[in-house]
Design brief:
By secondary structure, the protein is of the alpha+beta class. The protein is built from 4 helices and 8 strands. The longest helix is centred in the N-terminal third of the chain and has 21 residues.
Length: about 180
């Protein structure tokens, strides 16, 4: 029961983010753009292994687009949302609450922020390693948000924030 709860809670932040994004009014969304945020070779330079990106998929309502990818030891997810309300709450209050809840469950979290880029790592507590080790960077703009998320099964394969940050910088110029 506890591993399932932890797995569900780890997904809560992603689900909460997706729900918040989907509830925003949409002005426009360019199909196929999530997979063009970074190239397979960009990601390969970080992971050190071959990456296959699948075709992008729009979420219901066209408010967000996802692009999933795989490497031998990692899962990659690219997210793009266009048409966000420029006056939306960007204080990070909801995200901080979710991270605090995860910390209370024993998840180790590191967050680094530089301008519009926010990167984080999530390390599960001992005994809960099956939920995976995650590094995510998001880039926020007035009317758009993009993210790259890499999840691995072993801590030794985890991508440090400092290695993923340059990809977030590349993404910021591509949407």
């Amino acid at each position: 029961m506890i591993p399932l709860l932890v797995r569900l809670m780890s997904g809560t932040v992603l689900v909460g983010t997706v729900i918040a994004i989907l509830s925003q009014p949409v002005l426009s969304s360019e199909s196929g753009k999530a997979c063009s945020l970074v190239t397979s070779s960009d990601i390969e330079s970080v992971l050190g292994s071959t990456v296959t990106l699948n075709a992008g998929q729009s979420m219901p309502g066209g408010r967000a687009e996802l692009c999933a990818g795989e490497a031998p030891s990692a899962k990659v997810l690219l997210r793009l949302v266009n048409g966000l309300d420029p006056g939306r709450d960007r204080s990070g209050r909801k995200e901080k609450a979710g991270l605090e809840m995860m910390k209370n469950m024993g998840v180790q979290i590191e967050v680094k922020t530089a301008g519009p880029i926010v990167c984080s790592t999530l390390v599960p507590p001992a005994g809960k390693e099956q939920i995976g080790y995650n590094t995510t960077c998001t880039v926020n703009k007035d009317k758009a948000m993009a993210a790259i998320e890499i999840t691995v099964n072993n801590k030794s394969d985890m991508v440090p924030i400092d290695k993923l940050f340059p990809l977030a910088e590349k993404m910021s110029g591509r949407f």
